[in-house]
Amino acid sequence: MRWVNIRPGRQLAIYMAALPFVLVVIAYLLGSGARLAENPNDKLLPALSSMGLAVKQMAFQLDARTGSYLMWVDTLASMERLAAALAISTSLALLIGIVIGLLPAANALLGPFVSVTSMVPPLALLPILFIVMGLGETSKIALIVIGTLPCIIRDLSMKVQELPREQLIKAQTLGASTWQIALRVVLPQILPRLIDSLRLQLGPAWLFLIAAEAIASDSGLGYRIFLVRRYLAMDVIIPYVVWITLLAFAMDFALRLLQRKAFPWFASVRAE
Amino acid sequence: MSAIRFEDVWKEYGDHIVLERITLDVAPRAFLALVGPSGCGKTTFLRMLLGEEAPSRGRILIDGEPLKPEPDADRGVVFQRYSVFPHLTVLDNVLLGRELQQSRLLGRLFGRARREATEQAMTLLEEVGLKGHETKYPSALSGGMQQRLALAQAIMRGPKILLLDEPFGALDPGIRADIHVLMKRLWNETELTVVMVTHDLSEAFSLATRVIAFERNRNRPEERERYGATISRDLEIFPRRVAQPHADHPIRSGRDDPAAQGA
Ligand SMILES: Nc1ncnc2c1ncn2[C@@H]1O[C@H](COP(=O)(O)OP(=O)(O)OP(=O)(O)O)[C@@H](O)[C@H]1O
Ligand SMILES: [Mg+2]
């Protein structure tokens, strides 16, 4: 049988999916064990037990200096920034993307501008943001918005233009105005595609968040990682990275679930 | 129900002449079938009639008035594909025209208005044989059912002219025969002038009151772009077919509905 026709069964697929994870963990344990056997004070690859201790301390013990549970405070601070930024990005992108995609005149006016601005490397703008907006929350949220907005706009306006032309004609023969076409034909069909777009932008959004927090902040997951780096505290950094990954994965999963539940018609459209 | 008139219409795309010297008078209530080889400009003709494309020369008149340069509710359409909205259920697809008409701001009806529209939509769905499928999405329907839905959706808005671009081309023969029966009823019982593009001559002759053939007179490769297709045959079906509007239970299109007309 050809390789392209070999499909693993359901159970086998689960084992196969788990395999790379298991291998990475085993490799880590071996490496860590070897190094610790040589030097019990080694900080580079801490044992699971010491990472467990660090997590316990960060997440479940009141920090004496600040009077709070650091890991939760960090998580909350980061998630607030991310949520605020993505809320701004998606709502703006939805508005602008539909306008550009649907109205040729708006496309002529804004299309090239969006294409060019989406090429500006957002991190290069970070110093400007800090200078103009100060070191507070605004500049961090602005960075994430600037980093994700042009891409989502471009993606959505393209998705609008990809809707079959027949549909727009059909709507007009049913008497729809431009506003009604946007509201009843385009918007509901673009929402599930917005979720796709947002899922793709989660990675960049986290990147910009961590970068902004690393450079100027006094809370947040990125801030903590870069703070404890000074003490080579791998036992904190590694669990934080795992935690960030889990959060990002959970967001992605939730979006996928939302797409499936809220837009039951979308799967078959995409399959075409 | 409208008279359509083409006065020496040409359509060119750049140097490429697609249609030339099209002059045509279509009587109100006619059922016009348009046949011709692939690529001869049948869809282009329909798109001009729809207002999606403007003629390069000449004019198109509807009931003596120049055609509006964009699609509107006077001219309904069913394409071969993509005629219904995949994100709306069968019922919502049929309701859409009424909702757009009566609710300019939200494009949605609520309460009593919605109930009344739903009642009419359900009757129409029953007429086209889609009763019991109201809550399905179009992707769950067969090709024939989707085209029935597209017809119901167009009829619900009560157009004067119905334009069909190979609407049944993708259906297998048995299903096509069924839908022909429906098409005849729709034409007889609603106040429609129909223009249908088809590849199927027997379909053209069994449904239409008049069959028009487009053909390119010059077909040598070097002449192909310089000469467009024109009307080569114009056959009135004999014995003459006339719409029979007085059935026992006529299908009610949006136009016949007094409530809709008041809005
Ligand atoms: N937007 C356009 N720009 C340039 N040329 C076009 C355009 N639309 C159609 N044409 C050309 O016009 C000619 C007629 O096309 P049209 O789609 O009207 O043919 P048709 O008779 O409907 O064919 P078919 O039976 O295959 O559907 C074709 O040669 C096509 O290439
Ligand atoms: Mg065609």
Give a structural overview.
- The complex is a heterodimer of chains A (272) and B (263).
- Chain A has 272 residues and is an all-alpha fold.
- Chain A folds into two domains: 8-38; 62-266, MetI-like (MetI-like fold, Orthogonal Bundle), CATH 1.10.3720.
- Chain A has eleven helices and no strands.
- Chain A has helices spanning 10-38, 48-60, 70-102, 104-117, 122-133, 137-162, 165-173, 178-215, 221-228, 234-262, 266-271.
- The longest helix of chain A is centred in the C-terminal third of the chain and has 38 residues, at 178-215.
- The radius of gyration of chain A is 23 Å and the shape is globular.
- The model of chain A has no long low-confidence stretch (mean pLDDT 93).
- Chain B has 263 residues and is α/β, with parallel strands linked by helices.
- Chain B has one domain: P-loop containing nucleotide triphosphate hydrolases (Rossmann fold).
- Helix content of chain B is 31%, strand content 24%.
- Chain B contains seven helices and ten strands.
- Chain B has helices at 42-50, 90-102, 111-127, 143-156, 173-189, 201-207, 258-262, and strands at residues 4-13, 16-26, 31-35, 57-62, 65-66, 75-78, 161-165, 193-197, 210-216, 229-236.
- Chain B has a six-stranded mixed sheet with strand order 6-7-8-3-9-10, sandwiched between helices. In chain B, strands 2-1-4-5 form a four-stranded antiparallel sheet, with helices on one face.
- Chain B is globular.
- The structure holds adenosine-5'-triphosphate (ATP) and magnesium ion.
- Magnesium ion is lined by residues 42-43, 165 of chain B.
Characteristics:
heterodimer; A: 272 residues; mainly alpha; MetI-like fold; 11 helices; 80% helix; globular; B: 263 residues; alpha/beta; Rossmann fold; six-stranded mixed beta sheet; four-stranded antiparallel beta sheet; 7 helices; binds adenosine-5'-triphosphate; binds magnesium ion
